[in-house]
Each structure stands twice: as C-alpha cells, then as structure tokens.
Write a structure and sequence with these properties.
- By secondary structure, this protein is an all-alpha fold.
- It is 67% helix and 0% strand.
- α1 (9-18) crosses α4 (81-97), α2 (23-46) packs antiparallel against α3 (55-71) and α2 (23-46) crosses α4 (81-97).
- The chain is globular, with a radius of gyration of 14 Å.
C-alpha cells in the first residue's frame, strides 16, 4: 500500500490523528512525550548529559507500544519523523489545553 505524501504539517496532522484514534494509545503518546520532556529537563538541570540518550527511548517506547498493542498500525515516525514529532507535541498541547480528549 502506497504511503501518503504531505506537503505541510497542516496536511499531515489529520492523518496523524487518524492513526491515533484509540484512547489508550493517545494516553501512551502523551505520557511518553511528558516523560521525554522530564528526562531532558532532568539531564539539563543535573548536568548529566548522558541522560539525554534516554530521551528518545522515554518518548517513543510508550508511543510505539500504543501502536503495537492498541492501534495495530505502523507509527508515522518511520516515514514522517519530523512531522510525527511535531504531531506528538501538538497532541500533547491539545490534550493539556482540553481541545483533544484525554
């Protein structure tokens, strides 16, 4: 199956949301993004720069488990890494602001 192509994040985000319809998966994405932010902040705050290596693991492991166990689809990260990362942060801000269901 051919993967869609996107000329902008605005075009990509509806696709991103379509790939994240399961509530548990969305929660895992939000938790992973928050955890990644916390690990990055702890690394910077403590000066333990090696902890920055854990940031991608903290962010992506919960999200990818959500895709594997609940969405049963392939993460958009594999084909659209930058748009997907921006989508994770956009989803986080929408959830925290109440614009998107938790």
């Amino acid at each position: 199956m051919e993967q869609p192509r996107f000329a902008s994040f605005r075009e990509f985000y509806p696709y991103y949301l379509q790939q994240h319809t399961d509530r548990t998966s969305r929660r895992l994405h939000v938790a992973g993004t928050l955890l990644a932010i916390a690990v990055a902040a702890a690394a910077v705050g403590s000066g333990r720069w090696l902890w920055l290596c854990a940031v991608p693991v903290a962010g992506y492991l919960p999200a990818w488990l959500g895709h594997l166990l609940f969405e049963r689809n392939t993460p958009a990260t594999f084909r659209h890494p930058l748009y997907s990362l921006r989508g994770d942060f956009t989803l986080l801000f929408e959830v925290l602001s109440g614009r998107r269901p938790w």
